[in-house]
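Notes to self after the Tuesday call (sharing in case useful).
The group wants a holo model before anyone commits to mutagenesis around the pocket. I volunteered. Ligand is uracil. Logging inputs and output together so the record is complete.
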Amino acid sequence: MTDARSVIAALRRGDAPTPEALAWFAQGLADGTVSDAQAGAFAMGVCLRGLPDAGRVALTRAMRDSGHVLDWDLDGPVVDKHSTGGIGDCTSLVLAPALAACGAYVPMISGRGLGHTGGTLDKLDAIPGYATAADEARFRRVVADAGCAIVGASADIAPADRRLYAVRDVTATVESLDLICSSILSKKLAAGLQALVLDVKVGSGAFMKTAADAGALARAMVDTANAAGCATAVLMTRMDEPLAPSLGNALEVDAAMRVLTGVATGPLHDLSVALGAEALDRAGIAEGEAKLRDAIASGAAAERFARMIYGLGGPKDFVEDWTRFLPEATVIEEVPAPDSGIVTAIDGEALGLAVVRLGGGRQVESDRIDPAVGLSDVVRLGARVERGQPLAKVHAAREGQAQEAARAVAAAVTLGDKAPKAAPLVIERVA
Ligand code: URA
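Result:
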C-alpha cells in the first residue's frame, strides 16, 4: 500500500518512486488525499533529486490521468502547439486556424499571461463575447465545426497539476525541468492529441535566456512527450525582440488578424508556418509548409478563425472588420528615439513588464486586465532610427502611465553604430 510519506522518503533518498507510486501520488493530489505540506515536500524532492527519464514519463502520465482525458472521433489528425512564453507572440491565433484549414483539428487548451509574457486567453478576452471558459460540449462542437477552438482548462483537466502548480508557485519549486515538463505535457496530453509541436523560446523576452537551458528543456520535453505516446517535435526559437510589432491583448489580436488577412507578413507569419509544418509532419501530413502558406494566403485560415470566434460567442463578422470590435486606448503616444543609431539590442523582458504595468498583464492574480493597452510599432533589431523618430507607440489608459511606459521603452532599446548579425528565427529543431 503506497502512502505519501513513503513516496517523499524515496525521493529524499534519491530513489525514483515507481510508476504506481507516482500514479497514487497524482491521484492523491487530485482528490485531496495528499496534503499541501506533502505536495510541497514532493515538489522539493523532485527539484533537488530529479527524476530519471522513466520517472518523468510516469509522472506526466499520472498527472494526465488524474482527471478527464479527451478522446476524439474526427476525420483528421488532432494536433496542437505549446510555447514556453514570449512577448508579442500571438502565434496560436494564426496557427490554430491555419492548421484547421489544412485538415487538422486543434483542441487548444491555453493559459493566461505569466510574468512578463502574454497569455492567449487574455488576448481572446479582448474579443467581445468570446467564451474562453466554454464547457466541454461547446468546445467539442467548435473543434468539429471550425477545426479549432482555443479555451482555458476546465477543472477536470489534469487536476493534479492544478494543485501541484499552485504549491510550486509558493515553495520555490517552479524551476525544475521534471516538474515543468510533466506540468505542461500533462495538460496538453489530456486534450487527446496525436501530435504536438513545442516552441521553446530563447533570449531577452523568454524565460530561458540561454540556448543551453532551452536545449535541455527541449530535449526533456520531446523525450517525455514521445514516450508518453504523443508524436512531438520542438523548435527552439529566437525571442530577443517581440515576434509581432505589437504587445498587449487587443493589439496582438490585431497583429494576428493582419497576418490572417494578408495585410502583414514577417516573423509572426513565418514562425506560424514553421511550427505548423512540424505539427503536420508529426501527424503524417507532408508538404505542410506549402499547405499552411496557401491556407493563410487564400483566406481559408481566416475563414476558420471567423467560425471559431462565432462558435465561441464572438461577433459573426469579426474577421470582416475586427478594428470595429477591439477596444482602443485613450492615450496613444510615440516614444521618440533619444539619439540616432542602429537598434543593437532590445530588452524583451523590460518591454513585457512595461505592458504589465500599463495594465495589460497581472501584477497579482486578482488584477483585472485592460485589453486596450500595450505597445505597437516596436522597432526591430537592426533598424536605423534618427533622433526623434519613434521607437514604438504606447497605448495607455492615462497620461502618467504612458510617460512611464515611454521611459521603459527608451531604456529597453539599445542604439549603437554596428548592425547586429542577422540570426535565423528558428535556432534548432529537436525531435
Ligand atoms: N507552464 C506550466 O503549465 N507549467 C510549468 O511548470 C511552467 C509553465
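Two things stood out.
The first strand starts at residue 79 and ends at 83.
The radius of gyration is 22 Å.
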